[in-house]
Amino acid sequence: MGEPDLIVLDLRLDQEDGLELLRETRSRSDVPVIIITGDGRDEIDRVVGLELGADDCITKPFSLRELLARIRAVLRRHEAGRSAPQRDPERRRSKFGGWQLDRRLRRLVDPAGSQISLTKGEYALLTAFLDAPQRPLSREQLLQATRVHEDIFDRSIDVQILRLRRKLEPHPSTPQIIRTELGVGYTFTLPVQTA
Fold first, then answer.
1. How far apart (Å, rounded) are the C-alpha atoms in residues 122 and 99?
2. What are phi and psi of 129, to 5 degrees?
3. DSSP run (H or E) holding 72
């Protein structure tokens, strides 16, 4: 049996931990995931689920029409990301601050030589920063570059930034590589060499 096109995951399972299943899924696959939470008060579960890599979140109770609309939106974004042409096929490698990103293989290697896994959203966000180093980018520019502009969560880009910082920054709570520009957006501070 092949990989599913999309997973709808209820975080409130009887004997399984939904967040742990999401973490396991993300460690092995980039399949789109929509999480379902119990009620409007489960904000922590929603935030943690999005930080773990869920593509969308829906709260009970919901209608079948809303669920189908969200499934179609997530699948459209996923398909658009897969079929998007490389911006510049000649630039296959980007180097910054000891890090190296091989765009052809979608492989990120840290300064110590260890491979760092990236979700599709994190990869798209990193390439957007590498294409515009040391220039402030607005949330809207980053949303468009990562193809999540249809997402209902207007702060979803902040969650993506948080996840990427955790992978790149030595001290994510005091970021030096991806800096917040108040009232503007974010700036990738390192110079980038492409080959």
1. 15
2. -65, -40
3. helix 64-83
Would the pTM count as exceeding 0.70?
no
Length in residues, the chain: 195
Of 2, 62, 1, which is closest to residue 35 (Cα–Cα)? 62
Total Cβ atoms within 10 A of residue 71: 17
Q: Which of 181, 87, 168, 90 is nearest to 138 (CA)?
A: 181
Tokens 């189908």 sit on residue: 68
Q: What are phi and psi of 107, to 5 degrees?
A: -120, 125
What is the β-pairing status of strands 33-37 and 7-10? parallel
Question: What band does 1 get if pLDDT is binned at 50, 70 and 90?
Answer: low
- The share of the chain scoring above pLDDT 70, in percent, equals 86
The upper half-sphere exposure of residue 118, i.e. CA atoms within 13 Å in the direction of its Cβ, equals 26
Cis peptide before 61 (omega within 30 of 0): yes
First to last CA, the chain: 39
Own/partner contacts of 114-123, CB < 8 Å, gap of 24 or more, are: 116/167, 117/27, 118/164, 118/167, 119/26, 119/30, 119/53, 119/163, 120/30, 120/78, 120/81, 121/53, 121/55, 121/146, 121/148, 121/160, 121/163, 122/160, 122/163, 122/164, 122/167
